[in-house]
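Project outcomes to date are best conveyed with an example. Our students and postdoctoral researchers have been running inverse folding experiments weekly, and each run begins with a structure described purely in tokens. The record below, which covers 110 residues, was selected by the lab manager from last quarter's runs and is presented without edits.
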């Protein structure tokens, strides 16, 4: 029994998805992060960004306590200092300290 392929609709081939962007670590020196977050905690309001003026929810209060971000801050700071000591290049150190995951090779050196 033959099938009639003329009546079938064919979907256009899906556009190629853009290449996955590497995740970026957003870290700050803890002293700099703490200053801005202390102000927001005191007022219990967002001071910048899309939610400016809105009340902080429980998750954002936790972020501003510093506990949830300290690992990223310390990891970024450590990698930045390590690469800067090896290469003396601030741009390479910044790029290495912001990279996360498998695409970073040789302990952060790119």
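After processing, the design step wrote out the following sequence:
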């Amino acid at each position: 029994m033959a099938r009639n392929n003329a009546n079938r609709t064919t979907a256009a081939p899906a556009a190629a998805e853009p290449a996955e962007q590497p995740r970026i670590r957003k870290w700050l020196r803890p002293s700099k992060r703490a200053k801005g977050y202390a102000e927001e905690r005191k007022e219990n309001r967002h001071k910048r960004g899309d939610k400016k003026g809105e009340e902080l929810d429980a998750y954002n209060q936790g972020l501003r306590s510093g506990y949830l971000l300290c690992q990223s801050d310390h990891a970024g700071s450590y990698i930045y200092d390590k690469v800067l000591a090896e290469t003396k290049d601030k741009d390479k150190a910044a790029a290495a300290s912001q990279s996360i995951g498998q695409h970073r090779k040789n302990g952060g050196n790119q």
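DSSP finds four helices and no strands in the chain. The two ends are 60 Å apart (CA to CA). The training component of this project remains on track.
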